[in-house]
Amino acid sequence: MYICICNAIKETDLRKAARQHRGGAESVYAKLGKRPNCGQCLVEAEELITEERDAMAQPAMVA
Predict the structure, then answer these.
(1) CATH number of the domain that 18 lies in?
(2) Cβ(3)–Cβ(45) below 8 Å
(3) Over pLDDT 90: what percentage of the chain?
(4) Which of 27, 39, 40, 54, CA to CA, is 20 to 30 A from 60?
(5) Is residue 27 part of a domain?
(6) Residue-number span of the structural domain to which 52 is assigned
């Protein structure tokens, strides 16, 4: 799924960049070589970045 239509940033790419780079959405976009254009995606992007980082901080559950 595309998170940012203006820059063609996919959710998977955003999550991967969030794991590799600190900062908010604009900083993570810069890591991808992009910058926000219209800004409509920023709230959702911030939520995904937070979600990804929170998941990284949780210990893995063993089944």
Answers:
(1) 1.10.10
(2) yes
(3) 86
(4) 27
(5) yes
(6) 2-57
Residue 62 lies in a domain: no
| Domain contains 31 | yes
Summarize the confidence of residues 17-42 as an average pLDDT: 95
23 found inside a domain: yes
Number of domains in the chain: 1
Residue 62 corresponds to which tokens in the numbers above? 């063993």
For residue 31 the two structure tokens come to: 């890591």
The pLDDT of residue 61: 64
Residues in contact with 37: Cβ distance below 8 Å, sequence separation at least 6, in sequence order: 6, 7
Q: Indicate if the pLDDT at residue 7 is higher than 90.
A: yes
pLDDT at 60: 66
pLDDT at residue 57, as a whole number: 84
On the CB side of 45, CA atoms within 13 Å amount to: 27
